[in-house]
Amino acid sequence: MSACAEADTVSVEVREEIAWVRFNRPDKRNAMSPPLNRQMLRVINELEFRDDVGVLVLAGEGTSWSAGMDLKEYFRETEAQGLAGVRHSQREAYAWWERLRWYQKVTIAMVNGWCFGGAYGPLFACDLAFCSEEAQFGLSEINWGILPGGGATKVAVELMPMRTAMYHALLGETLSGRQAQAAGLVNEAVPAARLAARVTEVAKLLLKKNWETLKATKDAVRRVREMSYDNAQDYLIRAQEALNWHDKSDGRHRGMSQFLDEKAYKPGLTHYDKDK
Fold it and tell me: Is residue 76 over pLDDT 70?
């Protein structure tokens, strides 16, 4: 594939501090291929520290979010290259999923259609997830003789109750958007016509908050899941101490001053004005 064609596998648009990054293989239901995985890593790396980007939305062109891994390109063609080819293509995929998990900006998955198999990797990597009610989620691997790999089984167990995850993986049945919300795969399912507007609304709310605190909070949520209570408590104390020094905007003291001295807002109902 030419460099130009590889670049076309991902589309990017930045508007009002929101980066809209889209899988762009609609004719393949946005199945992930080695070229797409390479391009996606380039794109998110380029956007990560841009001052005009505060939130990244991962969406899909056409009627699907992502149908998972392209069976022909990702499996058959790479397997023909032997173990080296398989390992190389795996690392290209896992590299950008990992990058998203610890991204400098808040990330939102906007699932507008199919989300199958390997697509659970980037779904979990995003901090928040919204889908259309018409979206379909599935671990169909059992139906064609393999297990849900590439982290998909881990994602199901992380986001779903164990019995729900087991049924989902063993039966290979699809979930609707509403069922995916009930199972914990996404935050909300909304009518397709409202999906982009709802994601934009959430993104704009995030943009009003302290960026340093958002980054520290999203990392804390992921880290403490695997810690004991005592270890998590200690980690959070140290993380807050580090944030106090690292946040050059001094958001902690500005927020307290606006609440305690100016009576300008109520923390339980809204946020302090970071631009004041």
Answer: no
